[in-house]
Design a protein that fits this description.
Oligomer: single chain
CATH architecture: 2-Layer Sandwich
Helix content: 10-25%
């Protein structure tokens, strides 16, 4: 079943071989679509979506078991892949609450900040087993993503005129 323009429910079934699935969070799909647009992606590949109780990569309180998480790779239109750090930055910008680096070119994303979960924020590096302990941690570095290239920012000039007692005392374009 089609979940959105770029995602289908079959992409999120458990990869352990059981082919089980669960209702996937609409917020997860919405944010994945926003990520797709921001990054100007050719495709976002779901490495892991839902994880059943028998999946060796899951654990009891796993966000994947709740249908609110995905491990992803993002392909550029030229066929190359974004790095995990670039995906993490874009994921933070579109509002994902859980983000984990999976070097070199994958990233865990989840919607724990809006969907019910044990904690509302997590940043980490799953490759090195590091949790960033402070909520003020950010992956944002100011990257200009391919999806932003088409959105040219136009500077609008405004004329400001200050009139006191019917006399113009100041005029400028800002």
């Amino acid at each position: 079943m089609k979940l959105s323009e770029h995602f289908d429910d079959t992409e999120f079934i458990c990869k352990c071989g059981c082919d089980k699935s669960i209702k996937i969070s609409t917020m997860l799909i919405d944010r994945l679509e926003k990520l797709h647009a921001l990054m100007g992606a050719k495709a976002i590949y779901i490495n892991s979506g839902y994880r059943c109780e028998n999946n060796p990569y899951g654990f009891k309180t796993d966000a994947h078991r709740k249908g609110i998480a995905a491990d992803i790779r993002v392909q550029r239109k030229n066929g190359e892949y974004y790095t995990s750090e670039q995906i993490a930055e874009a994921a933070e910008r579109v509002g994902f609450g859980g983000i984990g680096l999976m070097h070199p070119d994958s990233c865990h994303v989840d919607t724990r900040n809006v969907d019910k979960y044990t904690n509302d924020w997590w940043h980490g590096d799953e490759t090195n087993g590091v949790d960033y302990p402070y909520k003020n941690h950010t992956f944002i570095k100011g990257t200009k993503f391919d999806g932003e290239a088409n959105n040219v920012t136009r500077e609008t000039k405004h004329k400001v005129t200050v009139i006191i007692d019917g006399k113009t005392v100041f005029e400028s374009e800002v």
